[in-house]
Amino acid sequence: MELKRLFRPTFLEIQNRNIRFIIPVIINIAVKFLMFLWVQLSINNRPELFSYRSWLEMFTIWDGGWYNLIARYWYEDIPMDPPIPIEQLFAFPPGFPALIRALGFLVGDFLISQAVIALFFGIVWIPLFQLVAEEYLSQEESFSATLIASLFPIVFIFTTVGYSEGLFLTLILSSWLLYLRNKHLPASILAAGASLVRWLGSLIVAPFFVESVIRKRFGRALLYTLPVLSQITWFYYGYLRTGNIFVVFEAQKYWKNRLFWSQFAEPALFQKNPPFSFNLPYTESFMGLALCLLAIFILFAAKVYEIDWKLGAYFTLTLIFIIYSGSIISYPRFLSFIFPLWFLFRMKRDWRLIPASLTLGFLNLITGYLFARWVFLG
Length: 378
Fold this sequence. Notes:
Layout: H1 2-17, H2 22-45, H3 63-73, H4 86-89, H5 95-107, H6 110-133, H7 139-151, H8 153-158, H9 165-180, H10 184-195, H11 205-214, H12 218-223, H13 226-242, H14 260-270, H15 283-307, H16 309-325, H17 331-336, H18 353-372
């Protein structure tokens, strides 16, 4: 009780001074610094365990490497041994690599460009999340939800390394905030940008469109077709480059054996043969967890509807599309970035944020080390 009485005036003072947005940012920067420091110390102590000698090269691990290659060569055959055909590159939308490419030409180094952009947007989304949260929750609850969301290991690592998640969150949160403030044209433009970073960004305008139609504001509804037009443009660009209007889906064929619907749902419900054997390496160890994760997220969706039906609609649509088309082994990452989820994880007694933040921060050191060792985390 004494701890709560001591800590609460401190939080009220934070609210009054309007620095509540700065504290989560400072904490995240500190944890990012400690994570990279820990990785570099690990490399120095056990260099034989790592495939590189600098923490900076973490930004080109897994998908980060694909983004870097696209930034360097753009969407054309990449001269490697063996060469990488252009069709594989269209699995990655152009928004993030375009920024890397633009800054890379200015600074003369695409790796530094990727690191700067990833780290910048990996911080910018945090106060934006807090601003959106305060539209639905109290300042105290929003503060705690922001800290928990930004320090959650999967969210933290993929908004720290060379992935597009930080940029994606920045765009969709900005779009949502502008919609709430009746700035519909810029909201739609940012949503279109989000759709060119990750195609799931198009889904954010669905509740905006529906509400506009319900209120008979058809001009506003028309504005929210911009993300669809941006996707049509992206498909047309793929057609111009390859002659295949659906080239975006070509690279996804590799992951067919990891789709929940074709690999597991259809065989169970309709007695169809799965496209690949059930005896895949991850099957026994992961499928029970994946099923439980989906069940939990269905319950989360119901709770999000209690906050706002538009948040619930976005949550549900994203969940459905992830289940149908997303790789099962990437569920932890895909599901963690449905931003309304984190509104459910708020604390009214802010003193509990101290042990929670310390625990999450410690787990992020481990997560960063695992990622640096090329462990697949989603």
